[in-house]
Amino acid sequence: MDHSEYANRLDAWAEAHRQEMTDDISALVRIDSTKGEAKDGKPFGEGPAAALAAMARLAESKGFQVHNYDNYCITADLAGDGEKSLDILAHLDVVPVSKDWKKTQPFEPLQEDHYLYGRGTADDKGPAVAAFYAMRAVSELGIGLRHGVRLILGADEECGSSDLEHYYGIEKEAEYTFSPDANFPLINIEKARLAKKFTADLPEDYHTPCVLEIDAGSKANVVPGTADAAFRGLTKEQLEQAAGETEKKTKAAVTWELKSDREFVHVKGQTGHAAMPDNGSVNALTALLFFISRLPLAGTKTTHALLGLAELFPFGDCHGKALGVDLCDEESGELTLSLDILKLQNGKLTAEFDCRAPLCATEENLTEKIRAMLRQKGFEMEDGPMTPAHYVPADSPFVKTLLQSYERYFGKPGKPMAIGGGTYVHGLKRGVAFGCEVEGVDNRMHGDDEFVDIDVLVKSVKIFADTIIQLCG
C-alpha cells in the first residue's frame, strides 16, 4: 500500500490520541512491576502479574483478542486475512528503584509539558503502549491486512527473559519480529554478553587499619549508584584525605561516620545501564575501590585482594583496558565492561561484572583472558560461555522496510546500529530492535528520574503503524 493513501489519516489519529496514550502509560507506571517472590500462578510475583492484567484489560476493551500465557506474558492479536507474519515484543517489568528520585517518586508518574517521568516510562511501558496504539490505529482506521500482527508483552525481560522461553516453548517465531525496547533508527547487532561471578575465600585477618565489610550493587546489569563499607582503625584525617582524593578523581560523593570501633563509609555515584557504563553513570563501587586504594591499610590478604580489584577494574575504565580485553571492530564497535556487584563479609568475597563484547570477541580473547587475569589476583571465576552476539544483515528486506518507515517520519536517512544491550530479540533468528530512544537524549533507563518524550512516542505510533502496513498490509 502506498504511504500517501493513509498518511494523513494516520497522522491525525496519532495526534488525537496523544493524551489518552499518555494516561494509559501512566496507569501502568503506577504499578510497581519489579520482579517479586514467585507465587502460584504468578511466576514473577504480584507486581508483574498486575501489570499484565492491566494491559490485558486495556487491549480487550479496544476489541483485541488477548491470551494469557500463565502470567509469563500476554498477547494481543490484530488479525489479517492470512496467518500472522509480524510479532512485536515488549515488556512490562521494571528494574528496582532507588530513593534518590528528584522529579517525582518512581511509581507516581509526572507529566511536564511533553515529558513523562516514572519508572518504566522509557523501559519499556511507554514503548509497549506506543506499539499497542499503532495496532489500534491500523484497526480503527479500517486498513486491511493480508497478514496478522501479534503484540507480545512479557514480565521478566529485566531478569533473564524466562517469560519468552516459556512463550516460545508453546509458539513459533514469526517471520518478522521487532522490539521497541532500544533505539531508533534500528539495531541489527546486539553485542555478546559476558556476565560472570567471581569469588575469593579470605582469612579473617583484622590487623588494623582494615576493611571489615563491603556491600555494593544489587544487579549485574545496573551500574551501582551506592557502595558501603565498614573499616576499623582509621583516623578522621585519613578518611578525610582519601575522601577528598576520591571525590576529585571520580566525582562521587563520599561521606563517613565514626561509631565505637568502626568507621562506616558511604559512596554516592549515579546509577545507569551496565550496557552503557560510560554514558553518564558514576560507578560507586569502583569509586569505593579507588577510595580503599588511598588508605594506609594493613597488608592483609583482604587488602591485597581489594587492591587487585582496584587495578583490574579502575574507576573510569569502561572498556576493559586494564584487563587487556579492550576489543573493538568497525561493524559493532567497542567492548564495554562494568564491575557492578561486590560483597565482602566474614572473609568471603563475591563479585560480578557485566561485559558487552563486539563481534570479534571469542572465548579465548575474552572469557579466558579475564579468567586468567582474575586468577593472578587470587580470584576464581565461574564457568560457562558468553551469550553469543545477535546479528541480522543490514541489507535484508525486513531491515530496509523498517528503515524506510523511520525515514518517512524523521526526515533523514537511517543506518543500522550495534548496541551493548540485549533486547527481547537477542535469541531470535529474524528479530531487530526498533525504537524508541533517539540520538542525543538520555532517558535515564535503569536510573533515577527515568522519563520519556511523549512527542517521540506519538511519532513512534506513526512509524510502527506504517511498518505494520508495509509488512502486512
What's the topology here?
Blueprint: H1 7-16, H2 18-29, H3 46-61, E1 65-69, E2 73-78, E3 86-91, E4 110-112, E5 115-117, H4 125-140, E6 149-154, H5 162-168, E7 176-179, E8 182-183, E9 186-190, E10 192-201, E11 210-216, E12 222-223, E13 226-232, H6 236-250, E14 253-259, E15 262-268, E16 272-273, H7 284-293, H8 301-312, E17 328-329, E18 333-334, E19 336-345, E20 348-357, H9 363-376, E21 380-381, E22 390-391, H10 397-410, E23 416-419, E24 431-433, E25 436-437, E26 451-453, H11 454-472
* Number of E-type strands: 26
Number of helices: 11
Shape: elongated
Q: State the assembly state of the protein chains.
A: single chain
Could you tell me the mean pLDDT? 96
Helix percent reads 25-40%
Residue runs with pLDDT of under 50 for 5 or more positions: none
Which architecture of the largest domain does the CATH hierarchy give at level 2? 3-Layer(aba) Sandwich
Strand order of the largest sheet: 14-15-13-11-19-20-10-21
Strand portion: 25-35%
Q: From the 3D structure, determine the CATH topology of the largest domain.
A: Aminopeptidase
Q: Which value, in Å, is the CA radius of gyration?
A: 24 Å
Determine the structural class based on helices, strands and strand pairing. Answer: alpha+beta
Biggest pleated sheet: 8 strands, antiparallel
Count of individual domains: 2
Class of the largest domain in CATH? Alpha Beta
Distance between the termini: 7 Å
Keywords: Dipeptidase, Hydrolase, Metal-binding, Metalloprotease, Protease, Zinc
Protein name: M20 family metallopeptidase
Organism: Porcincola intestinalis
Family: Belongs to the peptidase M20A family.
